[in-house]
Structure formats: C-alpha cells, structure tokens
C-alpha cells in the first residue's frame, strides 16, 4: 500500500477512484438496499466466496452515510449470551485480517476494552460475563482497581465520585477501528469484482408477484430482481413496510462527540454502563465519547445540548483531569432496537426478501460476519448455524436471545 502511495505521489496524477459510477441496469440477480458496512460486506463476500457478482448495492445517500460513518468504532466480543459471544467473536477474527484481505489499512487497534462496575450488582454481572466469555474462548476477565489503575492511571479510582469504581470487565482483544476505511475497503474490492454501487439511488417501493419479490422501485427507475436484502439499519422498518412486514423493533437517535486532539494518554476503551458514558482516544488524539440512545423513538439525526451536558458531566466524573478540554464537534445517527437486543437476520415470510437489521448501538463490529453469513445464506438458500438464533421467527417461537451485554451503552 505504501509503495502504491509513493508511486501515486510521484506520478502527479489524480488518485485512482476507489469505486465507480456504473449505469443502473434494469435487472440484477441480487439487490442490496443500504450502502453501509453490512450491505457492502455482503456484496464483497457474495463476489469473493460465491462468485455472485451480478449485484447492486443501492443507497439513497452516499455510502457510509448511515451508522457506518457515524459510529464510535468500538469492536469487541465480550457479550453475555453464548450465541452473541460466538457470533461477535467470529467478527473480531475477520476484522483482525481485514487490512490484509482488503489491501487497505482499516487501522484496527486492539488496545483493550474495560467495562467499569460501580455497584456490587454489576460486579456480579461482569463476573458472569467473564465466565461465559471464557467458556466460548474469548479473552475476558474481572479485574480490580489496582490493575485498572495500571491500565488507565488517569481514571479517578478514589472513593470521591458518586459511583466509585469497584472493578471492571477487561477484554484485551477489544479496541477501535477506522470505520470509514472499512466501508471504503469493502466498496473498493466489491467494485473491482464487478458489483455495482449506486449512490443517491433511493428505494421507494418493492414489487411482489404472487407474494414473492419481483423487483424494486427506485428514484432512478425500476429494477427486476428475485432477491432483495434489507441492510438499512435505522431505516429497516421503513423498507420492510414496503412488503407489508412490521419488524419487532423501534428506531432511536444515538449521539456522540469528539474533543480537540490531545497528546496520546488513553490506551484502552473505557465504558461505564452505570454512568451511561464511554470514551476512547482516536489515532488523531481526539477523545471520542458517547452515551446511550436518546429516550424517545425518532428518525432525527440532530445533536442536542442536553446530550453534551450529560456526557460532559459523566466523563468528568471518570476523568476530572479533562475539565479544560474543548469539544470539537458532535453528531447523531439512528439505531434500531429489538426488544431482546439481538439482531434480526435471514429469511422473512416474504420469499426473496431478506433482512440484516436490529443492530441497535452495536452493529458496526458485526459488519464482516454479517456480510459473510448473509452472503452464504443468499448463495446456498439455507441459514448458517451461527445466525440461526437471530432468525426473525424467534419472536413467534418465544425463543428470544436476551443479549444484555449489548444493551444500554454496550457498544
Ligand atoms: C453515534 C453512534 C455510535 C455507534 N457506536 C458503535 C460502536 O462503537 N460500535 C458498534 O459496533 N456499533 C456502533 N454503532 C452502531 C452502528 O453504527 C450500526 O449498527 C451499523 O453501522 C449499521 O451498519 P449498516 O451497514 O447495517 O447500516 P448503515 O450504515 O446505517 O447503512 C444503512 C444505509 O441505508 C441507506 N438507506 C436507508 N433507506 C434507504 C432507501 N429507502 N433506499 C436506499 N438506501 C437507503 C442509508 O442511507 C444508509 O447509508 C453506533 C451508532 C451510532 C449512531
């Protein structure tokens, strides 16, 4: 990559396009709605693993305009249920090799992830999570203030705060990544293999014939297809309603912000469920901070002063040393939350209409494994074992997967 960059710089020519604008065909074998990391990853694995390249990825905006370009890029696999832990662990494994696979540096920094426990009850939960994680082969343990202070000396570990820190769940493989690089890397390789990426192409309707998918209507014309994947995250309910399907989830806004850049000092990700706050330091030195979803269902991506006041207060309880640091910018995105905090993946009652949604505040880390398993499902016509627990029909079968390790601020 660096040699390529050097040659590029010396040549004086404009850089090569990462993906291209192609003419919109009137028929594709597979149409993926949503040009986020999930949709693009699925297109990439359809092409690389299954030789299916007659694929269109449609996005009403630019690629990465949704949660994929707005998230705080935390990657981890220390979930609470065995189903969730196994699933996210496979994703972490794919992320570990992604820069090589995509020939693009996605800057995955496995710096360690700490979930703080401020009460006896949360110490008990962390202990249980650590046990479940270890049984599934995930590196995760309960640690105490002495070790926490070694990993993060700037944290206030005294008994002065309202909620003193009693312990933490430590997950060394967790970390942060460059989210837009993941989007661009998948887009670049999918495009190179023949996938068509159509930005600014809004899906406005889905045509059914005898109850089966026959095509999609878009702002640029009609496309015939027998297979549609709904990978639109926060907007997934609006797409599902086009085939008369009501999904068991609601969409909420989620906000985040970054501070001005500081010298590197924070080399772990810190999450506090009790304070509803999390913080990490990006490679540029900015502190990336977020909280839980706004308390009302909405499609608004506005930011609010209320969020900023809340997060600033809570982060200062953890790190009083940051009191003079200025916030640089803030933003919002959409998160679609199913009641059991587990995703909705796979077939639906409508033949040809597939779903990959229900990603709440935690879906970016799942992008590679979602792309891979959904591609396998499309190519083989059967559901891979890893995602069977997340089938939509679990709501009719009373077989929910209560993933409390994803709830609240559990990114
Ligand atoms: C502030 C914030 C912080 C987060 N932090 C984390 C984190 O640290 N770790 C983590 O794992 N997850 C995190 N998430 C969640 C994560 O961002 C999402 O779960 C994930 O990015 C979803 O990816 P996706 O590809 O499924 O959807 P998206 O990236 O949301 O893409 C969906 C796309 O569908 C398009 N679309 C919608 N309607 C239509 C239509 N009618 N026609 C065509 N296109 C359409 C949109 O334009 C959009 O680009 C966070 C989210 C937010 C908002």
Can you offer a commentary on this structure?
The longest helix is centred in the first third of the chain and has 16 residues, at 120-135. With 411 residues, the chain is an alpha/beta fold. It has helices at residues 2-11, 37-50, 82-96, 98-102, 120-135, 145-151, 179-192, 236-240, 305-318, 367-380, and strands at residues 30-33, 55-58, 74-75, 113-117, 141-143, 167-171, 175-176, 196-198, 203-209, 212-218, 221-224, 227-230, 250-259, 269-272, 277-281, 287-290, 327-337, 344-347, 353-357. It has ten helices and 19 strands. It has an eight-stranded mixed sheet with strand order 5-6-4-14-15-16-13-17. The protein has a six-stranded mixed sheet with strand order 8-2-1-12-19-18. It binds flavin-adenine dinucleotide. Flavin-adenine dinucleotide is lined by residues 33-39, 58-61, 65-68, 70-74, 202-203, 231-235, 239, 254-256, 290, 333, 335, 359, 361-365, 411.
Note the topology:
Blueprint lengths: L1 H10 L18 E4 L3 H14 L4 E4 L15 E2 L6 H15 L1 H5 L10 E5 L2 H16 L5 E3 L1 H7 L15 E5 L3 E2 L2 H14 L3 E3 L4 E7 L2 E7 L2 E4 L2 E4 L5 H5 L9 E10 L9 E4 L4 E5 L5 E4 L14 H14 L8 E11 L6 E4 L5 E5 L9 H14 L31
Parallel strand pairs: 1-2, 1-12, 2-8, 4-14, 12-19
Antiparallel strand pairs: 3-7, 4-6, 5-6, 9-10, 10-11, 13-16, 13-17, 14-15, 15-16, 18-19
The site of flavin-adenine dinucleotide has 41 residues, from helix 2, strand 13 and strand 17.
